[in-house]
């Protein structure tokens, strides 16, 4: 029998063991974690909507009409009118013909990719794509060709050397690096080589583009350019679930073929109702996005001045590169000792030798919060020499 205990011990020895922290407050900058007050810089609640009073009120108002549970899958008796309204709102928001509401972003990515490609087909995947896209590629049983991160010359060579149905999948904003995919170049290559492009914009929707409509909108790209976009609702939207948007034909196809949509219970309708409110809040959040951008610019300037190695990202995801797993853990613990919560990201989430602290900003953070983070980083640098670039 496999020695599971030994595997866990090996993870501990390498500094790769993971553990859960117990949160006792809503998602917001000031939190209680494991019974202690901390200032959090590790949430994906980019616009600060997870605890917004309008979203909370929307859930409360919906519950008497919708109940709590979804009851069954969408194709049995679980497709509530609240789900239908949400899908219409998401299609309008993303400027697509139609949208489909999934239970999680992981399920959306796995379901979409495995539905759109299969045996005999070829999927082209950026090497830094999220695990859910990678697993969707594996589940599809298609041939998988991974290209170096954002390397359009390498992708073009692979596309030119491949026949048959081709599917190109990429993150819109890469979750661990924070950079934006070169979508205009990807669109051009897909059109040239007759490939279908799928963009997972989980970290782009809400933060990037006009009205927060994501990476495709940031580059002025339409449904004809990017046929399928995927977004999660538990990040900038502040609720839960995920969506896929595209042509009415493609959404109908996914209803018939996406196993992670067909064979799971529908999300609670009250969540769908609250998300309709969140979409309005996202569209009206230019002030929040502007504040977020100012925080990011100031952080990058002052963290670099402290000597920390940052990555080329203008998004709320601001990784501090450290290197080995133990050093990343040490820096994370040094910050937490000063009341700052920033998670250490280690392999296999990132490649070996690229462990980091993934600092994420929210529009709920204030300049005073940023002051505390920078002060703690300065103290930690003096306590742990060699942790900055």
Overview of this protein structure:
This protein is of the alpha/beta class and 389 residues long. 43% of the residues lie in helices and 17% in strands. The strands form three sheets. A seven-stranded mixed beta sheet has the order 3-9-8-7-6-4-5, sandwiched between helices. It has a four-stranded antiparallel beta sheet with strand order 10-11-14-13. It has a three-stranded mixed beta sheet with strand order 1-2-12.
The assigned CATH architecture of the largest domain is 3-Layer(aba) Sandwich
By CATH's scheme, which homologous superfamily of the largest domain applies?
Type I PLP-dependent aspartate aminotransferase-like (Major domain)
Query: What can be said about the biggest beta sheet?
Result: 7 strands, mixed
Question: Percent of residues in beta strands?
Answer: 15-25%
Biggest sheet strand order reads 3-9-8-7-6-4-5
Write down the secondary-structure element order.
Answer: HEEHHHEHEHEHEHEHEEHHHHEEHEEEH
The number of distinct helices, counting runs of at least 4 residues, comes to 15
Shape: globular
Q: What is the CATH level 1 assignment of the largest domain?
A: Alpha Beta
Oligomer: single chain
Low-confidence stretches: none
Mean pLDDT: 96
Task: Determine the CATH topology of the largest domain.
Answer: Aspartate Aminotransferase, domain 2
Terminal Cα separation, in Å? 45 Å
**Radius of gyration of CA atoms, rounded to a whole number:** 21 Å
Structural class, from helix and strand content? alpha/beta
Task: Please indicate the count of domains.
Answer: 2
Number of β-strand runs: 14
Percent helix, as a range, is 40-55%
């Amino acid at each position: 029998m496999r020695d599971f205990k030994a595997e866990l011990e090996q993870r501990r020895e390498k500094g790769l063991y993971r553990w859960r922290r117990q949160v006792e407050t809503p998602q917001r900058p000031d939190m209680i974690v494991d019974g202690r007050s901390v200032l959090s810089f590790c949430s994906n609640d980019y616009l600060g909507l997870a605890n917004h009073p309008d979203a909370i009120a929307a859930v409360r108002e919906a519950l008497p009409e919708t109940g709590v549970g979804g009851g069954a899958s969408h194709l049995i008796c679980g497709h509530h009118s609240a789900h239908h309204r949400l899908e219409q709102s998401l299609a309008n928001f993303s400027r697509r013909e139609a949208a489909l509401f999934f239970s999680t972003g992981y399920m959306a990515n796995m379901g979409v990719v495995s539905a759109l490609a299969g045996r005999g087909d070829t999927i082209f995947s950026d090497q830094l794509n999220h695990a859910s896209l990678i697993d969707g590629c594996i589940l599809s049983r298609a041939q998988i060709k991974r290209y170096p991160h954002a390397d359009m010359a390498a992708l073009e060579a692979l596309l030119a050397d491949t026949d048959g149905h081709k599917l190109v999948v990429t993150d819109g904003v890469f979750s661990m690096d924070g950079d934006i995919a070169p979508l205009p170049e990807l669109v051009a290559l897909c059109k040239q080589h007759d490939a279908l492009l799928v963009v997972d914009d989980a970290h782009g929707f809400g933060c990037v583009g006009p009205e927060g409509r994501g990476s495709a909108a940031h580059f002025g790209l339409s449904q004809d350019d990017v046929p399928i976009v995927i977004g999660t609702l538990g990040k900038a939207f502040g609720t839960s679930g995920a969506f896929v948007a595209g042509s009415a034909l493609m959404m109908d196809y996914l209803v018939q073929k996406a196993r992670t949509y067909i064979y799971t219970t529908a999300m609670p309708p009250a969540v769908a109702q609250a998300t309709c409110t969140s979409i309005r809040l996202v569209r009206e959040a230019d002030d929040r996005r502007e504040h977020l951008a100012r925080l990011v610019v100031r952080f990058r300037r002052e963290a670099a001045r402290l000597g920390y190695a940052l990555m080329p990202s203008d998004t709320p995801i601001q990784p501090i590169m450290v290197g080995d797993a133990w050093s990343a853990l040490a820096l994370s613990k040094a910050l937490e000792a000063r009341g700052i919560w920033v998670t250490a990201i280690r392999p296999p989430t990132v490649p070996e030798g690229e462990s980091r602290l993934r600092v994420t900003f929210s529009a709920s953070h204030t300049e005073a919060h940023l002051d505390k983070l920078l002060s703690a980083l300065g103290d930690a640098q003096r306590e742990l020499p060699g942790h900055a670039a």
